[in-house]
Amino acid sequence: MTDLLPQLLSALMLGLLGGGHCLGMCGGLMGALTLAIPAERRHQRLRLLVAYNTGRILSYTTAGLLLGLAGWALASGPLATLMRSIAGLLLIAMGLYLAGWWSGLTRIEALGRGLWRHLQPITRRCMPITSAPRALVLGGLWGWLPCGLVYSTLLWAASQGDALRSATLMFTFGLGTLPVLLATGLAAERLVSLLRRRGVRIAGGLLVILFGLWTLPGPHQHWLMGH
Fold it and tell me: Is the pTM here over 0.85, yes or no?
């Protein structure tokens, strides 16, 4: 449990601050979803947005479970130390990304473009959003949209060597993205602007980097635990 808590905090921070940092894409999607709700169903907007985001978070969790099984197979052998090193380095990279100091993670988006080409036509069939089940399906599909931060978090979660833990981390990451995306869909600009503040992003990025350093195997772990 002592080992899991920093990871859960990292996943939550990545989702919360990553959502504020990536509003260019995510905000556009939420705007498109809101516009896809027919006028006579606008009073159900919150319920439909919650259903959409539930589907999206479930898709993250499913991806974490599937990739976590592959990570478990690797970590069960002599590659366990290597997997932990990869996890630490990915956390450091994501901390740099959140703080706005390095954006190399966006290159990972190319990994999912082939899959998204097959899924994108299906998303169009789900519009307009006329019911919560339809919003849930659409969210589940849009959860596979190529995103450097999501993919990096997924690789980090999979490197834990435990499928259930990987799924839990991706679920927690998804919960972290929920406030900013709901706020975007409901036009709650105050929360969005708070999460986009440079000071908030840098503080969160530094904390994630610290967790990454703690994850890397070595004698420095005992020093960090003591402080």
Answer: no
